[in-house]
Specification:
Two copies of one chain form a homodimer.
Chain A (H helix, E strand, L loop, with lengths): L2 H27 L2 H8 L3 H7 L3 H14 L9 H18 L1 H11 L8 H19 L9 H23 L4 H16 L14 H5 L6
Helix pairs in contact in A: 1-2, 1-4, 1-6, 4-6, 5-7, 5-9, 7-8, 8-9
Amino acid sequence: MTQQARAVRTRRSILEAAASVFEELGYEGTSTTEILTRSGLTRGALYHHFSGKRAIADALVQLQEEALVLPDHPVRLQALVDLTMMYAERLRSDVVLRAVVRLTVERGSYQTGANYRGAMVAASTLLSQALERGELLPTVDPDELAFLLQGVFTGSQILSQAANGRADLPQRISGMWRMMLPSIVRPRLLPEIDIDPDRGGKLLGLLSP
Amino acid sequence: MTQQARAVRTRRSILEAAASVFEELGYEGTSTTEILTRSGLTRGALYHHFSGKRAIADALVQLQEEALVLPDHPVRLQALVDLTMMYAERLRSDVVLRAVVRLTVERGSYQTGANYRGAMVAASTLLSQALERGELLPTVDPDELAFLLQGVFTGSQILSQAANGRADLPQRISGMWRMMLPSIVRPRLLPEIDIDPDRGGKLLGLLSP
């Protein structure tokens, strides 16, 4: 293995260990010592890559933002549904995402609105496109609806996490869409939108289609 | 002042000081020393009333639950709207409520699902009554809708808190109802439900009617 490949692997080990610690203990409760214990690396290796706890948290947020890819479906509202269904599924399988969500939701000395902004812009963009294409009822305000949807998603994942460790989150997000779609979408399009709870897992290749 | 009246006043001083510390610093960040500094009381006075930080947090949660009174409106869906609008308004004026919300939302060594359960039971009860009285579309599942509404509320107040210190929360909750009502309520009742953002303030006597 080249020196560069080793460096990449070390950096990834630090980030993975840090994600599991942040997810479990929150920003305040996390120490670089605990990250070192879980990664099995030396303090020198950690400080070669990061200046400290905040820099590691920033790197996780950035990693998460880079992973936000808008689904490419011709019906833009379906693309938004797919974004939320995949996000719900990834919250169950991706420790980096869970860590960033905890860092974002909790008010503490680590504060960044970045995660909220990125998701809000993505939702607003898809809804504006859906409105232009005549998928939505003309009364819909894309920015207001994007805020509302993000509110439902954020709240649902907190409640689902508290109730059963997010086991029922895909069902909850599917239920959110079943309840909201009649107020949003043109009636003729309603039966075409797929909100099956398994959709996120199928799109991510975690469940067979 | 009698000894008993003094004791009641001391207990209240401790709880008010503790609420402001919990709201600002979260459960982990709060110390009894900081509570004593803000209340101006002695450590002996504090330990006369409470065994420690956890007991004070428990007392705040209990205080908050006792304050949860179901609004008494003949249209049960309006009573539920009023519950959410007053709650939104109180989150801006009541430090005890804000403290309990932060204790409930954040995962930490202080964990109680009590606040979620109380609000969920209240919402489910009002929705079941609304369904029985024919106010809702027959497709509505009261428990599922109660979970969804609590999710929207929880998420909206977190986002509104992050964006502008909850200044726009009543507008956000009003927007939630405007978006959700067409999927929930019988069409004939729709124009009768009042979702004005000022409604919570008026009902609490904070704004003139």
